[in-house]
Amino acid sequence: MTETWRLLQTGYLSAAENMAIDRAILVAHSKGLVPPTVRFYGWKPAAISLGYFQQLQEEVDLDACNNFGVEYVRRITGGGAVFHEDELTYSIIVTEKHPKISKNILESYGTICGAVMNGLTHLDINSQYAPINDILVAGKKISGNAQTRKQQTVLQHGTILMDVDVEKMFALLKVPNEKIKDKLISDVKERVTSVHHLKQEPVSFEEVALAMKKGFEESFKVTLEEGVLTPEEESFATDFKKTCFGNYEWNHKR
Questions:
Q1: pLDDT digits over 194-238, tens only?
Q2: Number of Cα atoms under 13 Å in the Cβ half of residue 41
Q3: Cα–Cα distance, 1 to 225 (Å, whole number)
Q4: For 3-251, which CATH superfamily applies?
Q5: Which residues contact 67 (CB under 8 A, 6 or more apart)?
Q6: What pTM was estimated for this model as a whole?
Q7: DSSP track, 5-36
Q8: Domain-by-domain residue ranges, the chain?
């Protein structure tokens, strides 16, 4: 019998809300309150998410963020700073004891990224996994991913780029040497791609979400059943937004 997981489609939310919800689901799942969950979401307004261990002032131009109306938030996952604008973001929350999830971090990345790659095939996009946490199309990055494990629960989230504004991204993120900024922009344009660029036609958020749903169902051999956040998760998320992701001290602590 096919296992049933929960699918959450929470639409476009603020940076603090998005990160608070991911963490709330992790806590709820670790307590046995909710089933394994896959979530699809977007960011409005646009935002930068900072890796847990990064130095905010070294990575992000806060004045530029203010000028562009772009938010910033510190994740509970590691990795680098990511600019979120025209993309679909997924998260998956599942116990690390699940038979499909390897105790080996690299292998678990490969499994979850494989579901994203499977989803891309439903958009007629063939991709390759680039360990530890990237997905490439013809050598160009279309997806970056980050994982953490807490309370015997895996949280992995990642992006599927639908379009990308490299100039805007570099206006918001600091570079070590301003003199080579133009070269960096040029290099990134050569190394990053998007669904819109590959398809050469508009593809909606909903179309990408449907493709990803199929990809996760096929890869994990589950049925994703649409659901909503529970009252406990709503409460956890409200608390995490207040104490962490919407909190100045949390976001500026490094």
A1: 999 999 998 999 999 999 999 999 999 999 999 999 999 999 999
A2: 27
A3: 15
A4: Bira Bifunctional Protein; Domain 2 (3.30.930.10)
A5: none
A6: 0.96
A7: EEEEEEEEE-HHHHHHHHHHHHHHHHTTSS--
A8: 3-251
